[in-house]
Amino acid sequence: MKVRNMSKSAAGTLDQPGRNVRAKSGLNRNILDQGWFEFRRQLDYKLQWSGGWLVAVPPRNTSRTCPACGHVSADNRRTQSQFHCVECGFEENADTVGAINVLRAGHARIACEVSDAIKSPAAGTHRSDSVAA
Ligand SMILES: [Zn+2]
User: 81 alpha carbon to ligand 1 midpoint, in Å?
Assistant: First the structure.
């Protein structure tokens, strides 16, 4: 998730003033107060403790990529909640599509680490010690 995007100001411009500016600024304060760094640190720690594995992936295009055909387009997301691929017609809940794409990105990253395609994992990710060569 990009916290900066989530907490973008609703103020707008002089020509096009934003709507619900006061409500959005309150929401922004809540988003920024949640301590995302601490949340991630705790998640990482607790996962290691229980034998889990935190893999951070770049969120880029995870909500715009069709899991069926791979077509990437902002037009695939005409509404906040619904995904409809303009290339192959695949339809699904947008959150489900995002989850599928994030999971695939994580699997790809793990595969690259195990095969040494990338040398050092990004901060917050861990190479498993139990993976057989
Ligand atoms: Zn598609």
Answer: 17
Distances in Å between the alpha carbon of 48 and those of 31, 40, 127?
26, 12, 11
Q: What is the residue range of 103's domain?
A: 53-133
Expressed in angstroms, the distance from the first to the final Cα of the chain is 33
Summarised one tens digit per residue, pLDDT across range 65-121 is: 999 999 999 999 989 999 999 999 999 999 999 999 999 999 998 888 777 665 544
**What is this structure's pTM?**
0.61
**Cα 59 to middle of ligand 1, angstroms:** 19
Cα of 110 from ligand 1 centre, angstroms:
25
Ligand 1 centroid – CA 87 distance (Å): 5
Query: Considering the domain boundaries, does residue 36 fall inside one?
Result: no
